[in-house]
From TrEMBL:
Its main location: cytoplasm. One of its GO terms (molecular function) is homoserine kinase activity. It is an enzyme of class 2 (transferase). ATP binds at residues 87-97. InterPro entries: GHMP_kinase_C_dom (IPR013750), GHMP_kinase_C_sf (IPR036554), GHMP_kinase_N_dom (IPR006204), GHMP_knse_ATP-bd_CS (IPR006203), Homoserine_kinase (IPR000870), Ribosomal_Su5_D2-typ_SF (IPR020568), Ribsml_uS5_D2-typ_fold_subgr (IPR014721). Catalyzes the ATP-dependent phosphorylation of L-homoserine to L-homoserine phosphate. The keyword Amino-acid biosynthesis applies. GO terms for cellular component: cytoplasm. This is Homoserine kinase. Its EC number is 2.7.1.39.
């Protein structure tokens, strides 16, 4: 028996929304095929990307699958074949998407009838394997599609944010897959924050969510800022501040770090001078010794799965 699922890349955090907000985009996707195998209780990982770990405990798709099977009392052996389309370590939710696609494929394989929230719950365990923390934002976006807010983690609750504005997405992404990047980025987080920063970030968060719902570009621009997490992790993306300045100067709706970086997310529309943003950003990347790729994308839908046989 086998089943297949595909899940899109995502940009988590979206300014002030650390571990809460995330956006699925069609920049890249991972495809996972789950197959039953003869050896009971065994999980085998295969992948076209030789750089990801094949140990099921260390692979996001493997750990999530293991916990799902355990909780459901399934002792069948399963092979998880991961066709990675999403480069990892760039802030594009690569580990999360593999985990989501594996959970959706296994759900299909054993007809588990998981709800979307249950899929998020199990996929989150996969993030423990890749970043040492079961953060929910990337996996929630890949499960639901669109722009989501995680409103509770125990139990998992996710809301899709209605987006009433037409915009496009530009990802400015330095080349080179970075091993253990999100794990390192989470170790850089402050354990305490100033009340004044908390207030500022809460204003940004309200502005951003209201901006998407009302279709108000000014509110989005005002909200797409972060005084806490983006700042604490600045050494991971020294190019970001300058690129954001360039994007805003050239009429972008807003810009923020994608996930834990180093990719920079730019939201833009027909009033944006995209060519100028690209030319000037390339110079900034060069100045920091980076080769940057530009990826155009749009908001994507949620995970899709099908039974193969
Ligand atoms: N299925 C997987 N897909 C991608 N990376 C994985 C997977 N399983 C484990 N990893 C590990 O997780 C890390 C990438 O995750 P992370 O740093 O969060 O980047 P991303 O922003 O792409 O999710 C790498 O160290 C990689 O080896
Ligand atoms: N909320 C997480 C998101 C990490 O996203 P990634 O795509 O960089 O793995 C965090 O900021 O740690």
């Amino acid at each position: 028996m086998s089943a297949k699922a595909e899940a899109y890349s995502s940009s988590a955090n979206l300014g002030p929304g650390f571990d809460i907000l995330s956006m699925a985009h069609n920049a890249f996707k991972d495809i996972v095929i789950a197959r039953t195998i003869e050896e009971k209780g065994k999980i085998i990982i295969k992948s076209n990307n030789p750089k990801i770990p094949l140990d099921p405990e260390k692979n996001s798709a493997g750990l999530a699958t293991k916990i799902l099977l355990q909780e459901k009392g399934i002792d069948e052996g399963v092979e998880i074949e991961i066709n990675k389309g999403i480069p990892f370590g760039l802030g594009l939710g690569s580990s999360g998407a593999s985990s989501v696609a594996a959970i959706a494929a296994v759900n299909e394989l054993f007809e588990l009838k998981l709800t979307q929230e249950e899929m998020v719950k199990y996929s989150m365990f996969g993030e423990q394997a890749s970043s040492g923390s079961p953060h929910p934002d990337n996996v929630a976006a890949s499960v639901y599609g669109g722009i989501i807010a995680v409103t509770s983690v125990s139990p998992v609750k996710v809301e899709k944010i209605p987006v009433n504005l037409d915009f496009k997405i530009l990802l400015i992404s330095p080349q080179g897959e970075r091993e253990g990047k999100t794990k390192k980025a989470r170790e850089m987080l402050p354990s305490k924050i100033d009340l004044s920063l908390y207030v500022k970030n809460s204003r940004y968060l309200s502005s951003l969510i209201l901006g998407f719902i009302k279709g108000d570009k000014e509110l989005i621009k005002q909200g797409l800022n972060d005084e806490i997490v983006e700042v604490a992790r600045e050494p991971l993306y020294p190019h970001y501040k300058k690129i954001k300045e360039i994007a805003l100067k050239n009429g972008a709706i807003g810009s923020c770090v994608s996930g834990a970086g180093p990719t920079v997310l730019v939201l833009y529309d027909d009033n944006t001078n995209l060519d100028k943003i690209k030319v000037e950003s390339l110079e900034v990347c060069k100045a920091f010794g980076l080769t940057c790729n530009f990826i155009s994308a749009q908001i994507a839908g949620g995970v899709k799965s099908e039974r193969l046989n």
